[in-house]
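TICKET: design request
STATUS: open
ATTACHED STRUCTURE:
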């Protein structure tokens, strides 16, 4: 590490090596050469005077890039694409005349961006599916464990630990739907020429427009894209970049919500994220177990969500067929947003794989609040014994006020049930009251809802993407 030079935290601390390589110069320049080979092959197939020997020569050096030559040439030309065309030509003297034939810089630049973004989105898909699997396992295991629901962060009707996790899971499923839709809709820039008119290629093919159209279609398919943009300027529409970051922002929103919930639950000591044996929570307070992984996700998620606005400005301010004020912005914003989302999902998988559920704490918290929530059911049981509903209501109101005073002012436990048991009007024993306030009677269809979600939504996803499951993540810090 260079300690006297700024280091990007995404690279040093958070992003996986796989994602870092995806956005590496080596991956970019190898894709440039892949595109030049595909262009030459397709032009040959459509009748241009290009030999098989020339193409084979290009293929020989596809992976063996002479970076030193390209770097020295760029010092002279101040043009990265032409420097790499020159370097490729040094290695491939026979193919030199036909490298980049008819193309503009955006041919390799924009098309490579799209290839790289698709690779990155596929990596995000892999990690998203693995996270969904982990959360599904957690929801299944705890689908019937009663816990206090919270509205406005105030105790509310009973839900279950697994049902709450299903809320997180379904939002990620919604993200999955967006991601797969965008992934399937991604279009290639293809072969469009300097301002998108394909004029240079029309000249190469002696004004045969059908061959130019076929060149665009055939080359796009060679690179794995069923469609290219039907029209472009010099660059493809930057709205596609916005769509990609929209998906990443959506994932970040879901993960921010999930980890905020976990942070609040850790404060309540009900659920905790993994805490390693030698992990330190605070430099001063040795006892602390801070939810640092969830906090990191929340922090990175804010960055990802804010990037979406950035790309909306880029898309909106493109002038006519081309303006270069998108370049520096995109070089920073898009890779770093993918890197941050990659880190978010890695940390999310780590958390979901090791969530600690403190069932005794959850049970005690339920016991503190459930008697108040069960008062309607208690009244109904007393009504069955012939008691007056209105008088019951007033008595329960008074007993509830007394119990609330005991809890808030005196620091005592909730004794509402005992107050009711001691009131002869109710004719309900403490044993009967405890049966009434069995928390499992108040969870509604929580368990069934979890089962339905897993069966109807999660299982088809996991079945479709079996080849992506089993991903291992390694946190750097």
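STATUS: resolved
RESOLUTION: sequence designed for all positions
ATTACHED SEQUENCE:
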């Amino acid at each position: 590490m260079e300690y006297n030079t700024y280091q990007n935290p995404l690279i040093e601390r958070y992003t996986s090596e796989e994602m870092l390589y995806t956005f590496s110069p080596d991956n970019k320049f190898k894709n440039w050469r892949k595109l030049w080979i595909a262009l030459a092959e397709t032009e040959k197939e459509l009748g241009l005077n290009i030999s098989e020997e020339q193409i084979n020569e290009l293929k020989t050096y596809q992976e063996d890039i002479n970076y030193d030559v390209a770097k020295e040439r760029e010092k002279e030309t101040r043009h990265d694409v032409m420097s790499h065309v020159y370097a490729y030509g040094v290695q491939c003297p026979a193919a030199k005349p036909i490298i980049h034939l008819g193309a503009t810089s955006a041919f390799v630049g924009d098309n490579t961006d799209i290839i790289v973004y698709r690779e990155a989105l596929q990596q995000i898909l892999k990690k998203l599916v693995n996270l969904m699997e982990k959360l599904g396992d957690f929801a299944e295991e705890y689908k019937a464990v009663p816990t206090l629901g919270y509205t406005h962060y105030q105790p509310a009707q009973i839900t279950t630990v697994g049902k709450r996790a299903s809320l997180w899971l379904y939002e990620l499923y919604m993200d999955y739907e967006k991601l797969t839709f965008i992934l399937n809709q991604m279009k290639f820039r293809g072969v469009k020429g300097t301002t998108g008119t394909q004029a240079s290629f029309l000249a190469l093919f002696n004004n045969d427009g059908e061959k130019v159209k076929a060149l665009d279609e055939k080359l796009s398919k060679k690179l794995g894209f069923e469609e290219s943009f039907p029209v472009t300027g010099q660059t493809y529409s930057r709205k596609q970049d916005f769509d990609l970051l929209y998906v990443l922002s959506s994932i970040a929103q879901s993960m921010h919500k999930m980890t905020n919930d976990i942070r609040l639950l850790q404060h309540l000591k009900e659920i905790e994220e993994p805490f390693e044996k030698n992990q330190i929570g605070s430099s001063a307070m040795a006892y602390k177990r801070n939810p640092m992984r969830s906090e990191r996700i929340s922090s990175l998620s804010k960055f990802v969500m804010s990037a979406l606005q950035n790309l909306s400005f880029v898309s909106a301010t493109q002038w006519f067929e081309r303006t270069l004020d998108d370049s520096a912005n995109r070089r920073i914003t898009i890779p770093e947003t993918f890197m941050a989302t990659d880190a978010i999902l890695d940390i999310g998988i780590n958390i979901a794989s090791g969530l600690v559920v403190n069932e005794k704490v959850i049970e005690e918290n339920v016991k503190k609040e459930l008697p108040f929530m069960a008062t309607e059911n208690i009244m109904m049981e007393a009504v069955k014994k012939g008691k007056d509903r209105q008088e019951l209501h007033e008595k329960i109101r008074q007993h509830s006020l007394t119990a609330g005073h005991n809890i808030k002012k005196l620091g005592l436990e909730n004794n509402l049930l005992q107050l009711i048991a001691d009131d002869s009007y109710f004719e309900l024993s403490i044993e009967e009251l405890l049966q009434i306030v069995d928390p499992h009677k108040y969870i509604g269809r929580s368990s069934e809802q979890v089962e339905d979600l897993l069966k109807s939504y999660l299982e088809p996803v996991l079945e479709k993407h079996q080849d992506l499951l089993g991903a291992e993540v390694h946190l750097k810090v």
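CLOSING REMARK: The longest helix spans residues 105-141. The domain at 124-207+222-357 is CATH 1.20.200.10 (Fumarase C; Chain A, domain 2).
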